Amino acid sequence: MNFINGDFVATGNWFENRTPTSNMVIGQVAEAGKAEVDAAVAAARAALKGPWGSMPLARRIELLEALVAEINNRFDEFLEAECADTGKPKSLASHIDIPRGAVNFKVFADIVKNVPTEFFEMATPDGMFCINYGYRTPVGVVGVICPWNLPFLLMTWKVGPALACGNAVVVKPSEETPRTATLLGEVMNKVGIPKGVYNVVHGFGPNSAGEFLTSHPGVDALTFTGETRTGEIIMKAAANGSRPVSLEMGGKNAAIVFADCDFDAAIEGTLRSAFANCGQVCLGTERVYVERQIFDKFVAAMKVGAENLKLGAPDDPATNMGPLISKEHQNKVLSYCKLAIEEGATVVTGGCVPDMPGELKDGCWVQPTIWTGLPETARVIKEEIFGPCCHIAPFDTEEEVLEKANDNKYGLATAIWTNNVSRAHRVAQKMEVGIAWVNSWFLRDLRTPFGGAKQSGIGREGGVHSLEFYTELKNVCIKLQA
After folding, report:
1. Contacts (Cβ under 8 Å, ≥6 apart) of 423
2. Going edge to edge, which strands form the sheet with 221-225?
3. How many helices (H) and strands (E) does the chain have?
4. Could you tell me the domains of the chain?
5. Can you state the angle between helices 263-275 and 295-307, rounded to 10 degrees?
6. Does the predicted TM-score (pTM) go above 0.90?
7. Which of these is catalytic: 165, 282, 337, 364?
C-alpha cells in the first residue's frame, strides 16, 4: 500500500506484483491517484512546518542513526522483499543492496554534521565593515523517482541526503519493485520520524503517480534515476515552476583493456561489470575494447567466465546471476540478441533463454551473452540494452580507442585496465564520463561526486555535492556597528 503521513493507504485501483524468477503473482499493489499524491505532498509540506522543520540538527541525526540500526535489525525482511521483487541472488543483495542502502543514511548524517560554509569580512564605504556567511536551508519537498534495478539502494541514495538536510520526501518507486520502499515506512514509524517526512506513492508514469508527482506544484525539487527518455519527460515537467532536477539516466559504458593490464583482474572485473545483476546496472559495461595483442585470449577467457555463471533462484547459494526484471524487459533484451545477429555479430556465447527447471521455467531469464565482429555503427553498439550482453572489439592505438569509446550519446562511466600509471591518468581524463575507474569497477566512495555526462544525466550527488542539490545556500550579510 501507499504510505502517506505515517499511515498505510489503500485505493480502489490495484495492480499485480510479479516475481521475475517465475513470473508468478506475489502480491497486489494499491495504485495512487491524484488525490493520494496531493495528500502525500500536503503531508510533506505540513511536516516541514511542524516538528521536522524546527527539529535541531543533532536530533535529526539521532533519528537517522536509529533508522540505520532498525534497518539492520530487520535486515532479513528487507532482503526477502528485495529478492522477491527483483529475483536477484541473496548473495548479491545481502552484500550490496541492503547494507549499502542502510549506510546511505549514516554517511549523509555524518556529512551534514561536518560541512562548513563560507565566511568573509568586507570593508564598507563608510569605513566600517561587514561579515558574510553562508547558511544552508532545506530545499523543501523533494519528489524521488526510483528505478527497479537496485530499488532500496538507489532510493536511499536520494532519501538519505534529503532527510539529512531537513527535507521531506514523496517517493515513487518503480511499479516493478514496490516492497522495500513500503517496508521502510514501517521503520520510519518505529524510530519516531515525524509523520509526513517520508511518503510513498505507488503507480506508473503517464496519468498515474509518476506524472501527478512530477507535475505537482507543491514539489520543490525532483531527483530521478532511470532511462534517459523518462528523465527528459521529468525535466520538462520540472520547467513549470523552474524547479531543480538531479537526473541520473542511461549509459552505454565502455571498458578499455590495455595489453599491459593485470589480465586476471581485468577478466574478473569485466565479467562483473557486464553480468552483475543480470546486466541491469546503470554503471555496467556493454562495450569492451581490448588491445589487439591480447584480444583473442581475452575473448576466450570471457567466454569461459560467462558460461560458468550459475543462473538460479535467489535462495540457492550457488546462484550468482538472476533473471531480468520482467517479461517486457526480457523481450526487449532478446530483441537486441536477434538484432545483433541481423547486424552481423559473431555470437561467442549466449543469446537465448536458458532451460530452467521447475517453477523457474516461466521466469524472465536470458543467458549471459557475448558478441564480437560488429561495426561501431551497429545499433547494438550505440543503444543501451540494460541486460547481460556485451560486445568485445579489438583496438590498436590509444587514440583509436578513445575515439570509439567516446563516440556515444551517453557518458556515465568507464573502466580502464592498465598498469601504466601515466596512461591511466591520461585516458581517464579524456573519457567523456562522470566516473572513470582504473583497474576496478563499482568502487564507490560516497563522499565523491556521482552523475553522468552528455545524455547520462544532469547534476552530481554524493558527499557535499548532494548538499548542493538538497539545500538552498543563502548568504547572510551583517553590517557591524562601531
Report:
1. 258, 398
2. 7-9, 2-4, 198-200, 168-172, 141-145, 221-225, 245-248, 457-458
3. 17, 22
4. 2-249+456-479 (3.40.605.10), 253-445 (3.40.309.10)
5. 50
6. yes
7. 282
Beta bridge partners, 415, equal 255, 437
71 touches 347 (CB < 8 A): no
The identity of residue 255, as a single letter, is: A
Q: Please, what is the end-to-end C-alpha distance for the chain in angstroms? A: 62
Amino acid letter, 373: G
52: cell is: 521536522
Is 248 noted as a catalytic residue in this protein? yes
Rg (alpha carbons) of the chain, rounded to whole number: 24
Per-residue pLDDT of the chain (482 residues; tens, 9 = 90+): 999 999 999 999 999 999 999 999 999 999 999 999 999 999 999 999 999 999 999 999 999 999 999 999 999 999 999 999 999 999 999 999 999 999 999 999 999 998 889 999 999 999 999 999 999 999 999 999 999 999 999 999 999 999 999 999 999 999 999 999 999 999 999 999 999 999 999 999 999 999 999 999 999 999 999 999 999 999 999 999 999 999 999 999 999 999 999 999 999 999 999 999 999 999 999 999 999 999 999 999 999 999 999 999 999 999 999 999 999 999 999 999 999 999 999 999 999 999 999 999 999 999 999 999 999 999 999 999 999 999 999 999 999 999 999 999 999 999 999 999 999 999 999 999 999 999 999 999 999 999 999 999 999 999 999 999 999 999 999 999 87
Angle value at C-alpha 127, between 479 and 134, nearest 5 degrees? 30
Distance (Å, whole) CA 319 – CA 306? 13
Q: Which residue is catalytic, options 248, 286, 384, 461?
A: 248
Q: Contact 396/292 with Cβ under 8 angstroms?
A: yes
431 CB contacts (<8 Å, ≥6 apart)?
402, 405, 406, 414, 416
Our answer to whether residue 36 is catalytic in this structure is: no
From residue 104, alpha-carbon distances to 145, 165, 272, 462 in Å are: 17, 13, 23, 10
CA distance 15 to 32: 11
